[in-house]
Amino acid sequence: MHASPSNLNRLEIPAPVDPSWKTLYKLGGVTALISLLAAPAEIVIGLFPGVQQILVHTVTVSDWFALFQNHWFLGLRSLGLLNIVGAALFIPTILAIAHLLRREGAAFAALASIVFFLGTAVYLASSRAFPMLSLAHQYAASSRDADRALLAAAGQALLAEGESRSGILLIEFSFFFISAVMFRSEVFGKITACAGMLAGVLMMVLEVAFMPPQGAGMIVAAGGGLAMMTWSFLVGRRLLQMGR
């Protein structure tokens, strides 16, 4: 039985995937899997001899400047370096997911991506890590008391201002949002979608009600972290498969 010309016109022939998108799928998959190392890295760094003692005694702006001069990586890590790296790693991942979800909900996937990039921009703009590193270098190089006093005041202002958590909250909401779009997709599956939505909800609850995490907050943080790692693994594996 042969299809008539009118039936052939109604057949949906999938368009070939641009090779550049396949490359992005692979890159997004790799970065999602690399992000799994963030939580173990935090734990391992905290277990290094002397790290906890150093951080406990890092209170004043002079202590922070000394920390950056003697252990610059530890100073950056204490002010959110691994969060910055994690957000950067998810950039190609989110782009790849949004492209794969274009059939199920292109508008909502695009909106979730915009929320993610907005949250990342806000978080990076409010980060104190690299400004404090720069001030510490200037403080060490300065020989004038007046200049050192100004730099110390600037550092104290950074510490007093604190790091805005609104960017992280937007990023976590974007994970929930894009995972909700995934729920309607056959590309990723409902287990991946549920893991992402659970991670987003728990991490938002943590930010709003249990920051810094203590007691029940630690349980919420552990649950959110495990759900996020599950989502990252499943998404990373699927993106690598789609890249082939």
Write the layout of secondary structure elements.
Elements: H1 5-10, H2 19-34, H3 38-47, H4 51-56, H5 61-70, H6 72-78, H7 81-100, H8 102-126, H9 129-141, H10 145-161, H11 166-182, H12 190-209, H13 216-243
Helix pairs in contact: 2-7, 2-13, 5-6, 5-9, 6-9, 7-8, 8-11, 9-10, 11-12, 12-13
Can you describe what's shown?
The longest helix has 28 residues. 34% of the residues are buried. With 244 residues, this protein is mainly α. It folds into 2 domains: 140 residues, no CATH class; 67 residues, no CATH class. Helices cover 80% and strands 0% of the residues. The protein is elongated. About 4% of the residues have low confidence. It is built from 13 helices and no strands.
Number of strands: 0
| Helical stretch tally | 13
What kind of sheet is the major sheet? none
Percent helix range = over 70%
Describe the global form: elongated
The N- and C-terminal alpha carbons lie at a distance of 34 Å
Integer count of domains: 2
Rounded Rg:
22 Å
Question: How much β-strand is present in the residues?
Answer: under 5%
Q: Which structural class is indicated by helix and strand composition?
A: mainly alpha
Which segments are poorly predicted (pLDDT under 50) over 5 or more consecutive residues? 6-15
**Strand/helix succession:** HHHHHHHHHHHHH
Rounded average pLDDT: 85
